[in-house]
User: Fold this.
Amino acid sequence: MTASAMSRPRVNAITAFVPAWDFARSRSFYLELGFEQTWEDDSACGLRIDGHGIVLQNFHVKEHAENFMMQLIVEDVNAWWERIQALGLKDRYQLGMAEPPKVQPWGLTVLYLTDPTGVLWHIVEAKKDG
Assistant:
């Protein structure tokens, strides 16, 4: 039997390991953004939001962090922008980027937000079917 004909075992989740320059500051940012912490040790912590998770690392390499991107697909990107503004995250965490949602040339509405380390988040509104 060829590998392509074999059934593949099911995947339950995929998780990114997100770098943090100042671990405590980054953890605080993510908690305020709406994540909940599920575990922690000296090297990392687990963060979840609506059943989806990341591992925030107590690890930083500038070039890696500034080229690291994540995508969060949400139902209402404008509501996320309102929350980010109401919490004053850009000023309080001195974020490099917090740009309001805008329809991009490829058709998605995207809010760009960097975390305190410089990780770029693409907060994207889910496409509506129909």
